[in-house]
User: Fold this.
Amino acid sequence: MSTSNVSNISIQTSMRLTIRQAQTELLQAQQEVSTGYFADIGAELGSKTSTVVDLNRESLRLSSILSNNSIATQRLSGSQEALNQIAKAAEEMNQSLITISGSTNTIGTTIGTVKSSLDTMTDMANSAINGEFLFSGINTDVQPLAKYDETSAAKVAFDNAFNSYFGFAPTDTAGTATIVATGGAPSMEDFIGNVLEPMYSGADWTTDWSSASDEVMTSRITQSETVNTSASANEDGFRYFALAGVITQELMNIGAPADAVTVAINSAIDYTGKAISGINKTRSELGLSENRIEKADSSLQIQVDIIETSLSSKIEVDAYEASTKVNSLLAMVEASYTLTAKIQALSLVNYL
Assistant:
């Protein structure tokens, strides 16, 4: 009878491999329980993985558009609030001008009100959100409007135009006392209509007042639709607001005859009305953009929800099955640890 050596090394090695494999499967199973999705989507779906990749890419693209829409909505909301303040300032200016129409007794008070309104318009036009100016068009890093004061380019341009037209400075009371109301050049009516207004409706506006671009910001709100999501300080509402303000500040208190002052007052009222109409037109256009974005967001969100539902149906795991698998693997690992410990404890010495 012959004997041979019997070793438990092969059994121990086998158990270590079993434990290692069980631990790997346990980690994957725990991940699936935690996330609710397959740990290795490619291994589970095989050739269907490309469908999941396409759905995920489409979901991310639509979500990106939704994110951009939220930024555009914020910009539009800020613009609407600024325009609302400008419209209120224009209404106050208009009421103040109407109050003195036909009378020059409260000109000083009116000039103060109009100056305040013009400052409000300038401040609101220079509003910014997230470091971007709202009314600069596509020049979002440039402040759109300069303030009107004694050193501004617009003030210098006015003084030069006045001096060139009438032959004397606005501060020359002897000269201003001779200004006639109407009747062609030189007259208050002709100066305002044929000299001053073209400075605001034409290219001089972008030289003396505005650094904004005529081109405004646009945003893609769906796969095929774009809308304007900003306004420009070069639009008529801003131009006429500034013109009415300058007429009031510069022509009503220079010592001109009452009938000439009345022409200036009536012109300021007229331009203020045009400013209000222009501002409201801009508000309506931005409001239309807001409405289109709201509808686009609703449509996009529906598409995202459909895609997410389809995606989830492909990569979600059965929660009960995953939990059961975790418990089974935990029991297997524990049993393997116990068996390994017993095998390692085997020794001939224990039987001697």
User: Anything to note?
Assistant: The CA atoms of residues 49 and 81 lie 48 Å apart. The first strand starts at residue 128 and ends at 129.
